[in-house]
Structures are given as C-alpha cells and as structure tokens.
Design a protein that fits this description.
By secondary structure, the protein is α/β, with parallel strands linked by helices. It folds into 2 domains: 248 residues, TIM Barrel, CATH 3.20.20.70; 67 residues, Alpha-Beta Complex (Type Iii Antifreeze Protein Isoform Hplc 12). The chain contains 11 helices and 12 strands. Strands 5-4-3-10-9-8-7-6 form an 8-stranded parallel β-sheet. A two-stranded antiparallel ribbon has the order 1-2. Helix 7 links the parallel strand 8 and strand 9. Helix 5 runs parallel beside helix 6. The longest helix has 18 residues. The radius of gyration is 30 Å and the shape is elongated. It starts with a strand and ends in a 23-residue tail after the last helix.
C-alpha cells in the first residue's frame, strides 16, 4: 500500500520529517508562528503541535496541580490553531497536531489535518483509537512505554477500521538515552506488522534519526525549539533550528547515498580504474620469439595492454616482435600458445 500525507508519498527511500514543536511555544501564538517559519527553513516536511483542553486531559488535585498548571499555561485555543494552520499554509509546510483527548481530535478533524498522530499515552485507549481510525486518515501511532502485546492490540483495533497506519518506534524518556533506543526494533516492526514504520525521537542526538532511517523508518519525528534555554518541560531535549537543519541534512545525505541494490561504476571510477589497475609490462628486453615468463614480465600500473586477470593466459606465449624493457605488452605483440 502506498501511503500519502497530503501530496507527500511516505516511503523507506525518502523519510517524512516532522518538527515536533509540541508545546514549545509556551502558550504564545507568536512563538508558535515563529516555530512554523523556522521549521520550514530547517528543512522539515511538517510542523506538529499538541492540541488539548487541559481539563479534559489531567485531573487537578493536590498531587497534580503543579503539572496541571504548567500544561494549562502552554494550552492554545482552537481558534489559535486555526490561525496556525493558515500560517503553515502560507509557509508551505504541512500542519499537524497531536490530539490528546477526544474533543480535540474532533476539532483537528474539522481542520482537515492530513494525518492523525496518536501519542504513546493513548496506546491502550481503545475508544480513542477507534474514533481516530474511523476518520480514515493516515494514523501515526507512537509506541513508547508499550509492550508488544499492547502494540498488537492497538494495531488490530486500528487496522480493523483503517489499514492506513504507520507504527512509530519510541522510547518515552525525556530525554531518552541513545543506549536504550533499540532501533533494530523498527525493522522488526515493519516485518511483523507489514506496515510502514517511523521513529519518534526524544534524544538530543543528531545521529539517532539517521540510524533510524537506515533501519527502515519512513517517518522521523524530532522535538523542535527556538531556544534550548527557554522555560518549559521539552526545550532542553529539543533541537534548535540550527541543529534541526543539520539533522535534516544528515538524513537527506544518507538518503541519496543509499542508491539501489545494483553495483554501478561511476564515470569517475571508469577513468580511475585505468590508472589503478595493472597490466603486463616487460621486466627486461624480450627478443622476438622469446617465451613470456614470470622472469621477463611484470604487472605494473597503468592498465594499458594485457590486463592483470589475463596474466596467466599470456605466460607461455611467444613475443611476435622485440619488446624493449618496461614497455606495455599488447595481445597483438604475442602469439597464441
């Protein structure tokens, strides 16, 4: 199955790169708009935020009040998200947002977002998975902190209604340790579930996303900030525009370097191989009718006459003419055995 997000074909050959702005706008729409502009400049295919109503997401009590207030501070209104989508359109970058509860899912669907990204926290939320799947949009499902059995169940729930799924490998640590990434699981997921896979990255590494692509990830999602020193829970492990741009360049360089499963000789190699390969030369002066031997011949660069792989065929033949010392020997210069 060929999957598209908007007009972008999603494939293992050219990964779809998402700048995960999340809540790194700190509740300020001006910062959110700047994140969109900078994501475009940094080479991202898509900018993604998080859409939620805090009251529908987190219970507020004595234990959660600090976290509740911080998340509430970073909440944007639905009309502001409409404004952000328009800003993304003007900047020619795809707009997405992760709905963290059902009301926000319905709102984002009303915006006609090109795909639905489901966060790791909803993997076992069957009601939410079904509602998202019924949209028939491409579903990107993060699998952080999930067992394989939970991934199986979520995959089965979604694909019973919608086959357009991309499973996103994820380690839900903030930041995640490179040593715990287990990126080979990306290739395993693709084989087991017979679907496209991706990588939602919470490390600060520039190498991990490229490694994930080489393991078969068709989508790379990386946290994105304007400034790592800003206040907020996600800024410190996000990439700033300069680092994000470098990450994209690394992935795109890896992309073009892979080529195809076919050995090719480049035009430059064709020129070089004549110099780096050896051919048969006379080691000393050889008389006419004298037999070519290991004592009077030698293999030297460049490749001019009889090639190195024809060496043993030439030994035992007779010189058809006098060959001076250190001269290339051509097939026309010798007789057949």
């Amino acid at each position: 199955m060929i999957l598209k997000i908007k007009n972008r074909v999603i494939s293992k050959q050219s990964p779809f790169i998402i700048a995960e702005a999340g809540i790194n706008h700190n509740g300020d729409i001006k910062l959110a708009k700047e994140l969109i502009s900078k994501a475009k400049e940094s080479g991202a295919d898509c900018i993604k935020f998080q859409t939620y109503k805090t009251e529908n997401l987190i219970i507020k009590n004595d234990k959660t009040v600090a976290f509740f207030n911080e998340i509430k501070r970073c909440e944007l209104s639905y009309p502001q998200f409409e404004e952000l989508k328009e800003h993304a359109v003007r900047n020619e970058i795809l707009f997405m947002s992760t709905p963290d509860e059902e009301r926000s899912l319905d709102f984002l669907l009303s915006l006609n977002i090109p795909a639905i990204k489901i966060g790791s926290g909803e993997v076992n939320n069957i009601s939410f998975l079904r509602r998202a799947a019924q949209s028939k949009k491409v579903i990107l499902l993060s699998t952080g902190a999930s067992t394989e059995e939970e991934i199986d169940a979520a995959y089965n729930e979604i694909t019973a209604l919608n086959k357009r799924i991309i499973l996103m490998h994820c380690v839900s640590e903030y930041p995640a340790s490179v040593k715990r990434l287990n990126l080979r699981y990306i290739k395993y997921m693709a084989s087991k579930y017979r679907c496209l896979t991706g990588f939602s990255d919470h490390t600060t590494s520039l190498i991990a996303p490229t490694a994930a692509f080489l393991m078969g990830a068709s989508v790379i999602e990386k946290h994105f900030t304007l400034d790592n020193s800003m206040e907020g829970p996600d800024h410190k492990f996000s990439l700033n525009p300069q680092s994000f741009k470098l990450m994209v360049e690394n992935i795109r360089e890896a992309e073009v370097s892979l080529g195809e499963e076919k050995k090719k000789i480049t035009p430059k190699e064709s020129e070089l191989r004549q110099f780096i390969r050896k051919s048969l030369f006379s080691k000393k002066s050889i008389k006419r009718n004298e037999t070519l031997t290991e004592e009077n011949t030698v293999l030297l660069r460049p490749q001019l006459g009889i090639k190195a792989n024809e060496y043993f065929d030439a030994l035992g033949c007779k010189a058809g003419m006098k060959i001076n010392k250190f001269k290339p020997i051509y097939k026309k210069d010798i007789s057949k055995k």
